[in-house]
Specification:
There is one protein chain. By secondary structure, the protein is mainly alpha-helical. The protein has one domain. Helix content is 75%, strand content 0%. The protein is built from 13 helices and no strands. Helix 3 packs antiparallel against helix 10 (222-235) and helix 6 (120-146) runs antiparallel to helix 7 (158-182). The mean pLDDT is 85.
């Protein structure tokens, strides 16, 4: 009878302990992310405005080149709005992954002095990038409406697209951060890879311009698939959705599976290697 009475109490204690641990982890993630976000603009005259400078400056150059010189805007509705969304979202992806590469090495003293789960570091980088993305998207929405692209119900798909992109970027970031501790060549290799990914992800062009024989293979790239759906939801509802682009719903499972697999693999690998991170720093 005593065992029966004690068992629920033990389980309850374990549940409370895990809940407290999760709350502590999330608090640390938010605190570190907010601190990094504020420090980024400390002492800057323009402050938060800098989050808009890069994507909008790049947008201006790209839009002029690809519309006036190359002519990629032909038969593409709201092309300018599409590449603006593409640049902003891909900038978010590169911010998460690039900042994650050297994150553990940069916070070596913090890892040695304090006892906490190192997973806080890559997660906080993603949250910081999300804060920047949120500020930039406000300006993008205003620009979009001013250009004649008005809010639609399909705009509610954007949070899902951002969530999936965040999972993919965070998964890649966790893998890169741990690998960089042992192999410093990871930084220049990823710099090259991210450039290749930029041109292979339909940031500056719409996916429907890809030749038919490569179309489905191209959309297996998670970023290209998300951007294709983003175009349908945010820019041009007459453009094919990702399901229509693939031709069947089950093909959509390919990029989705890659996103979830990357996040799970990154989390598993990070948790496996993190106890030895301090030794290798």
């Amino acid at each position: 009878m005593t065992d029966i009475a004690i068992t629920p109490t033990v389980h309850a204690a374990k549940t409370v302990s895990r809940t407290d641990e999760l709350k502590r982890l999330l608090t640390l993630v938010w605190t570190l992310a907010l601190s990094d976000w504020k420090l980024r603009f400390y002492g800057s005259a323009l402050g938060l405005a800098w989050t808009l400078v890069r994507p909008f400056a790049l947008f201006g150059v790209v839009y002029f080149v690809f519309t006036e010189i190359v002519g990629l805007d032909k038969d593409v509705k709201n092309y300018g709005i599409y590449i603006l969304y593409g640049l902003v979202l891909f900038t978010f992806f590169t911010e998460v992954t690039s900042n994650s590469v050297q994150a553990l090495v940069a916070r070596e003293s913090l890892l040695r002095k304090m006892q906490f789960n190192p997973i806080v570091i890559p997660l906080s980088i993603s949250v910081t990038a999300l804060l920047n993305l949120g500020m930039t998207l406000i300006a993008v929405f205003i620009f979009s409406i001013g250009s004649g692209v008005y809010p639609m119900w399909s705009w509610f798909e954007l949070p899902v697209i951002i969530l999936l992109l965040t999972m993919f970027a965070t998964g890649v970031g966790m893998l890169l951060s741990v690998l960089y501790v042992r192999y410093r060549d990871v930084a220049p290799i990823w710099e090259v890879m991210s450039q290749i990914l930029f041109y292979a992800s339909s940031v500056l062009y719409v996916a429907t311009l890809v030749p038919a024989q490569y179309y489905r293979t191209f959309l297996c790239n998670p970023i290209a698939a998300l951007f294709s759906q983003m175009r349908h939801a945010m820019v041009d509802p007459t453009a094919p959705s990702i399901v229509k682009a693939f031709g069947h719903a089950y093909y959509v499972m390919i990029p989705l599976s890659l996103i979830f697999a990357t996040f799970i693999l990154g989390f598993w690998f990070f948790q496996r290697e993190s106890p030895r991170v301090a030794e290798n720093l």
